[in-house]
Design brief:
single chain, alpha+beta, D-Maltodextrin-Binding Protein, domain 2, Dipeptide-binding Protein, domain 1, 3 domains, five-stranded mixed β-sheet, 21% helix
């Protein structure tokens, strides 16, 4: 994945509640790396986990560390553990997200456990059509799905590979990666279960690989597995990934690094939905995962409702009892709902003119936080003809678009772009 120059995103925080907005709403994982702030991030996580910070303090410090808005939201909503913690070590951490989805003072104290907060309301730039990350092509699907489906490993803000569902992140030093770099070994966490109570096993990992690479399934995650030669099941919790060639991006296999994620999926719920049946699986609309939440209601293109996954391995997490992930609307309306009326706790993709934002900020309900991001807004020009069919397919490279191949038309489009507003 190519990394572009950092662009500026904006976030907003409503006083007494989590009210943030990433101007572009992208950047990969909800714990996406935007800079190297190892010591500061570790301190921030520790302070959140022990309940020493108000949510406003978390947002301000997160912004100072260069975290993206989704990263801060994930820290507040799911209260994930530090990369060096174990489930036992964090069992009494108190959930960490200081404050509920209501207009309170936002002060935090210790002893806050699972479900201490009420409802977290998130307004996203667009509602997801499904909730399976194997069909994601950006944050539209991957972010709301990440509350349910977790990666086997992830990349920390410091650029380290961090264990999530496995005992340790594979490396050459610990023997998890073979000397030739072509075998990666994982051991799943002991007692790990899906939210329906079924144990997560190595068979699930091998099944997911087979399921995702089937061309008839049409997954977007299949490129993550293109270098996989075989997955060997050693025992119920241990499996080995045998690669065709040494691959520096091995962490994208079942992990979430620079991709949208390719998590392990439950075999018992998808084995009857292979190939061309995969996209119609009920799982895609109501996934069963290992994450802090499970889906209670999903209206594609509109809203996702979550409640706590009682099988989640951290007894005192997550903090919020429920999450509402709403999509749609326009940027000015989203800004108003956060900055002026306080109807929403967290809004994403706020692309609003500066003068409008300044007006809304005068209400005193919220504040604007500027954050860097690692992606770029862009538009592709289709030079092929979308109306002409060639061998059953449209927009084939061998065809010519009726007017976009005309240089004068493209120059006119370029002249019509308001560059001052973008900058």
């Amino acid at each position: 994945m190519a990394w572009f120059d950092q662009i500026i995103s904006c976030s907003l925080v409503c006083h007494g509640g989590v009210r943030a907005c990433d101007a572009y709403g992208r950047g990969g994982a909800m714990d996406e790396r935007v800079g190297s702030r190892a010591n500061g991030l570790a301190a921030l996580e520790a302070a959140v986990l022990t309940g020493r910070l108000s949510r406003r303090d978390v947002l301000k410090r997160g912004a100072a560390l260069g975290l993206t808005a989704p990263a801060i939201a994930a820290l507040l909503a799911a209260c994930g553990s530090s990369s060096k913690e174990t489930p036992a070590a964090t069992a009494s951490s108190g959930g960490g997200a200081p404050g509920a989805g209501t207009a309170t003072t936002g002060t935090s104290g210790g002893g806050r456990g699972r479900g201490s907060g009420d409802l977290l309301r998130i307004l996203y730039w667009q509602a997801p059509p499904m909730l399976n990350q194997h069909y994601a092509n950006g944050n539209l699907i991957s972010n709301p799905a990440a509350l349910v489906l977790e990666p086997l490993i992830r990349i920390s803000p410091e650029g380290d590979v961090v264990a999530v569902l496995c005992e340790k992140a594979p490396s050459l030093e610990n023997g998890g990666i073979s000397a030739d770099g072509k075998t990666v070994t994982y051991t799943l966490l002991e007692g790990l279960v899906w939210s329906d109570g079924t144990p997560v096993s190595s068979d699930d990992a091998k099944f997911t690989w087979k399921w995702a690479i089937d061309p008839a399934a049409g997954t977007t995650s299949s490129p993550a597995f293109v270098n996989v030669d075989d997955i060997e099941v050693v025992d119920a919790r241990t499996f080995k990934i045998h690669l065709k060639n040494t691959d520096p991006a091995w962490y994208n296999i079942f992990g979430r690094g620079t991709s949208d994620g390719a998590p392990i999926l439950p075999k018992h719920l998808l084995e009857n939905y292979m190939g061309d049946k995969a996209q119609s699986a009920p799982f895609n609309m109501k996934p069963v995962g290992t994450g802090p939440y499970k889906v209670t209601n999903f209206v594609p293109g509109d809203v996702v409702n979550y409640e706590i996954n009682e099988s989640y391995r951290f007894p005192d997490k997550p903090f919020f009892k429920k999450v509402e992930y709403k999509g749609g609307g326009d940027a000015p309306s989203a800004a108003r709902a956060v900055l002026q009326t306080g109807e929403v706790d967290y809004a994403i993709n706020l692309q609003v003119e500066k003068s409008v934002l300044e007006n809304l900020l005068k209400s005193g309900v919220g504040e604007l936080i500027v954050l860097p991001d690692g992606s770029v807004e862009h538009v592709f020009i289709n030079f092929a003809d979308p109306n002409k069919e060639v061998d059953g397919a449209r927009s084939e490279p061998s065809t010519q678009h009726p007017f976009l191949t005309d240089k004068a038309v493209r120059e006119a489009l370029a002249l019509g772009v308001d560059r001052d507003m973008i900058v």
